Amino acid sequence: MEIRSxxxxxxxxxxxxxxxxxxxxxxxxxxxxKGLLEGRNVLAAxxxxxxxxxxxxLAMLKSIARGGKALYIVPLxxxxxxxxxxxxxxxxxxxxxxxxxxxISTGDFESRDEWLGSNDIIVATSEKTDSLLRNGxxxxxxxxxxxxxxxxxxxxxxxxxxxxxxxxxLMKLNPGCQIIALSATVGNAYEVANWLxxxxxxxxxxxTDLMEGVFYGGSINYRTSQKQVHDASGDDxxxxxxxxxxxxxxxxxxxxxxxxxxxxxxxAGMKVAGLLDKRTRAALDDIVExxxxxxxxxxxxxxxxxxxxxxAFHHAGLxxxxxxxxxxxxxxxxxxxxxxxxxxxxxxxxPARRVIVRSYKRYxxxxxxxxxxxxEYKQMAGRAGRPHLDPYGEAVLIAKSYNEMEMxxxxxxxxxxxxxxxxxxTENALRTHILSTIVNGFxxxxxxxxxxxxxxxxxxxxxxxxxxxxxxxxxxFLREKKMLQGETRLTATSLGKLVSMLYIDPMSAxxxxxxxxxxxxxxxxTLMHLICKTPDMRxxxxxxxxxxxxxxxxxxxxxxxxxxxxPFRATDYEWxxxxxxxxxLLLDWxxxxxxxxxxxxxxxxxxxxxxxxxxAEWLMHSLSRLAAITGHDKAGMAGSIEKRIHYGARQELxxxxxxxxxxxxxxxxxxxSGLHSIEExxxxxxxxxxxxxxxxxxxxxxxxxxxxxxxxxGGGTDGNPDPRTMxxxxxxxxxxxxxxxx
DNA sequence: ACTACTCCCATGTAGACAGCATGTC
DNA sequence: CTACATGGGAGTAGT
Length: 742
Known about the structure:
Blueprint: H1 10-18, H2 26-33, E1 42-45, H3 52-65, E2 70-74, H4 77-87, E3 102-106, E4 109-110, E5 121-125, H5 126-134, E6 145-148, H6 160-173, E7 178-183, H7 189-196, E8 199-202, E9 210-216, E10 219-221, E11 226-228, H8 236-246, E12 251-254, H9 258-272, H10 278-293, H11 298-308, E13 311-314, H12 320-331, E14 337-340, E15 354-357, E16 361-364, E17 368-371, H13 374-381, E18 393-398, H14 402-413, H15 427-439, H16 446-454, H17 457-461, H18 468-480, E19 484-485, E20 491-492, H19 494-502, H20 506-518, H21 524-532, H22 546-556, H23 570-590, H24 595-602, H25 606-629, H26 635-647, H27 654-657, H28 664-672, H29 678-683, H30 686-693, H31 695-704, H32 723-741
Parallel strand pairs: 1-7, 1-8, 2-5, 2-6, 3-5, 6-7, 9-18, 12-14, 12-15, 13-14, 15-18
Antiparallel strand pairs: 3-4, 9-10, 10-11, 16-17, 19-20
Helix pairs in contact: 5-6, 6-15, 8-9, 9-11, 10-11, 10-12, 15-18, 15-19, 19-25, 20-25, 21-23, 21-25, 22-23, 23-25, 25-26, 30-31, 30-32
The chain binds a DNA duplex through helix 5, helix 9, strand 16, strand 17 and helix 25.
């Protein structure tokens, strides 16, 4: 089917023609025939890279041409910005004055454009969409097209219920709205399509061929053929990597743990290095430099070493700069192999000639090592083959025996992806969504709640009589915690409204309020531990040797905790110690312990530290608001800790850290040289600032606070610098030198 | 006496969304 | 209730 023949505005047609897209892929054509351009709902369950985005784009643009507005829901922030960047290319399409406008809304980023609702396309995560709905965003009712990306995430225990409830609310709010759902191929796609009232496009078609095989006995075995792999290293997986490189391709290796991904990248690097040409090596050295600049932790050093050899690892412990460097380095074909945890399995567009699944098992605390779902394998395998660049893609599993090979063929390569199941039916999921449903007036009674649930995917798959009792338990809980009131007619209290708005689990709110009630001797530790107790916080686990250390601390500061469980309840007590350990990490963060130290002591990556801080900031904000509304006097204290978590610094730096471009490290340098306030910095000798922070940063700093950047090239100073300033100047010089040595 | 290698056992285990108001090294 | 890859330390054979 040709773009020319489609019933779309000429501007849209020309946009695609001029970007070189003239024909539709078969699944896209099928979606058109199911009424995509006539406003019908469509569920496209097709592989990655088979053109899902184009489907969505056509429908959105057509709708916008008629004066509509589109909402594009994604599961990941990274995906949101990827789509946002893509849709911004529409600004040249003259469907209306000024072109098509795009906005983005995620928890950490909201587009500057006057107001989100003035955009034609809004990209948002599912949780942000839910949050926007909870806060009664007015333009939600103007939405005419909704795109749901990765709709199979309905199956996720954590996040599926949110997506499900959000979609249900949107459908109730906008009955006439067109829904385009995009999904991986799953067993029961028809069931989801049915729920959405959508036409189903089900296809395995890919623009690039995919060969799936199992490596065993020195060769890759496909069902009908075999490919010998030269044993150049003594390690099966490394041989597969080298084989791909010699063939001119790149490799993506999926590992089951961070440690394994780092280890494999390192080992493979020793062999890969020999295959690099001079130009590539030079370009890689450039990336290495940036890696070292972006963090001096041990992981940074190891990553730098790997990249020098043309390999890299990728997991959530990396900081965002490192992640981006790895992704970009791989995309530009400089990094030849990336060993990754499932971070890269779904979401980001990062294809490779060959995908190696080094382990199809993953640890689960309940089940030991457990085989991953077929759906997940298919997502990893689907990364193989770059459209238009590779002749084909290959996905390879590794077997240690003939039987295992047979098993892998049967259970993965030839298997169909699992069915997806709603996870809404648990008290955990219902508690929070029932509250928001009532807060927003989607339901005003117990019957109303049940009626709402009848419209969800859960009810589409199950009889709902089974969860009536669960609903009642939730309602009792919410009433008992004073978030709801009334018997037949249910209304939210101001507390309930606040909890829904803050987007925290009502259970978290209950724990925080109870803790505030009980606490007698309130310190930073008290509040920090309190937020670490909530189910919304992520926990650190106790490692061997932690017990004693943390137990000692608990005993010596017992009165600062709102409650210490009895040590003889071993599991409870260990869980409690885990919470305390998490609180200690956060305390180290706000007391300016170096990232490197925190990394080592708590055995976490830079990326984790930021993730913990981000969560804690949100929960501390919530604590502050909850304290205020329940009449506790700790709201102010929580508020200032919240700010300290944001910057990772002590109270005394709060003024300096407010300057753009100055964070915890630079502010500390300034403070320790006697510059305690913006005013003092403004009056300081520019040359001294230059010595402290480097001339360029100093100049930026002075511009930022509205002072004249008057640093002289020679670095001469007026008068005698205070000796303390001199010391720290020397120190900073030294650290600069040692940075260079490495 | 020192080194290279093997074996055994302790150890630790993926990812990532949300508030609010603007910008880390 | 369920596993397994990794790496460090101890022990051993070789020079």
